[in-house]
Amino acid sequence: MKILKVLVVILILKSTVTHAQYASAISGGVDVGAAFGSNTLAPSIMYHEEIGPNRLPWLRLGLGFRTWGYYGGRANLYTKSVAGTQDFLEYRNTSLNGLSVLAGITLVFGKFDIGVDTDLAAITYGGKRRGFYEKTSANPGTGGAHYETWLATRPTIANALPLLLRRNSGQSEAFVRFRAWRTVGVKVGYTYGRVAYRTTRADGFHVYLDNNQRHVSDVYGLPYVALAFAIGN
């Protein structure tokens, strides 16, 4: 386990004692589970490593990777609100897959871990989806030529901080992990995610909605359950 070397170095530099005296051993694990709703499924596999100071044995800081998918039914994805107006594309279904780098913080109480994590950056991919631009106006804007038509879109590819930035896809979660046995436990929580698409080119030109918008997105919140496998100390 090497992805936490930077955190280890920071702890060493801030300490006046040796690493062995100050920082606890790196621990890690793999969580395999899914978030789910009435017409939505978001499976994921997360690899995580944590480290913390011996002075605060209940506090752990972590980094990790998450591979995930999102498969949803009928949905509306929205543009950024401009001057109080907001457009949307209506989809029969949405789907995408991603690989994310994440960071988190965990509080340890006996066999229970209580924590949160969020994607820092992600690469997502998925097939094209057509969204219906349901709009009419006596004074058409930049998207006027595309009112009441189906527009081709695809998921954004490069994503960062989806918890904060609306044009980016990714996930965050709050969870409780119960270490029922030495190497196997159960994890339950709540996944908060964002799905982002953008219009694709037509005849070599960008396709815009009103207010020069190309990106549409929406957030979702789903309960989550997983098996948690411990690795290391």
Automatic annotation (TrEMBL):
Keywords: Signal. It comes from the Bacteria. This is Outer membrane protein beta-barrel domain-containing protein. Residues 1-20 form the signal peptide.
